[in-house]
Amino acid sequence: MLTRRRALLALSGAALAAPMHRAAAQPAWPARAVTVIVPFSAGGSADVVARALSKHLTGEFGQAFVVDNRAGAAGNIGAQSLVNAAPDGYTLMMTTSGPGATNKLLYKQIPYDPEKDLSPIGLIADTPLVIAATPKQPFSTLPELIAYAKANPDALNFGTPGNGTMGHMAAVQLMFQQGIRLNHVPYRGTGPLTNDLLAGTLDLAFDFVPTYLAQFDSGALRGIAVTSPERLASAPQLRTTTEQGLPGYTPKAWFGLVGPARMPRPVIDRLNASINTYVRSQEGSTLLASLGAPVRGGTPEEFARTIREEVARWRPIVEEASIRLD
After folding, report:
1. Which of 18, 32, 39, 322 is deepest in the core (most CB within 10 A)?
2. CA-to-CA separations, 200 to 6, 197, 205, in angstroms, rounded
């Protein structure tokens, strides 16, 4: 009887110990390298931010955070790679507002839904737009531009880095709000757009800020307005749309870190805390300021709300203007 009792006790102990052993066998995250997908080519703003943040995260967590550029389809290819990955915290993505929100409005068929298939981790920064003009134009402020466009319908040609870009949507929004007509000239990127603007064969550009700062300083181009509520530290000479009488006109993109849906909340929280530390550090805030990108930060819930608001904000404009990328 004693021997049988000892055997039962031994079996019970083994049964209790087994779950504990299995739990202990699960290594704490991160136990290996983490991939950070950038859904655009190397060298762009998203890539620069991703590499800087990855360096910070590597130092913070003691494992390599490795940037993997997977460009194509306005960011959809990289986003699909993320959505297909295991939600274990080892595959993340540095997204902008395109693949992170508005691409679902621009494509008839998109293989994922950013509102359902992504885990928002942390917002990093906003990226406002600038309206740039050639110096030969008779206007130098946003109200003057609007007045000129109303008096001269279809007389002004504006360029953007492409159909469906934030610059394109921002210009359409301004036309709808102010009742003006401008002609869109889509380019394949900022480079050829800037060249034509400098040559005077184009009247306006709606684009992101950094490329144009040197041209504003030299007088080669004229900065009409920046679409941020407050002036940028990197370009204090640029007047905002708000101070020029259009407080409701502040279109912008953003950078943020996301993962696949159903990521473990403890991993999300650890990454979110590290992101907030980075964007408020001297190193992080200086880099973002150089890109004309005011710091955001905040909680995962605030990021999720930003994604929902972005989709709701642009849906009527995209539908009214029939902006499509496929």
Report:
1. 39
2. 93, 5, 11
Give the predicted TM-score (pTM) of the model.
0.85
> What separation in angstroms does the CA of 9 have from each of 6, 12, 18, 157, 159?
5, 5, 14, 85, 79
Are 100 and 114 in contact by the 8 Å Cβ rule? The answer is: yes
Number of separate domains in the chain = 2
Q: Has residue 240 been placed in a domain?
A: no
Both 81 and 134 in a single domain? no
The 10s digit of each residue's pLDDT in 265-295 is: 999 999 999 999 999 999 999 999 988 899 9
Provide φ and ψ at 150, rounded to 5°: -70, -35
Contact (Cβ atoms closer than 8 angstroms) between residue 250 and residue 229: yes
β-bridge mates for residue 259, sequence order: 119
Question: What is the rounded distance in angstroms from the CA atom of residue 59 to the CA atom of residue 270?
Answer: 14
How many C-beta neighbours within 10 Å does residue 179 have?
A: 10
Helices (H), 68-222: 76-84, 97, 103-106, 142-151, 166-178, 190-199, 213-218
pLDDT tens digits, 96-136: 999 999 999 999 889 899 999 999 999 999 999 999 999 99
257 in helix, strand or coil? strand
The CATH number of residue 276's host domain is 3.40.190.150
Are 303 and 119 in contact by the 8 Å Cβ rule? The answer is no
Q: Which domain holds residue 85?
A: 34-127+253-321
| 219 and 139 share one domain | yes
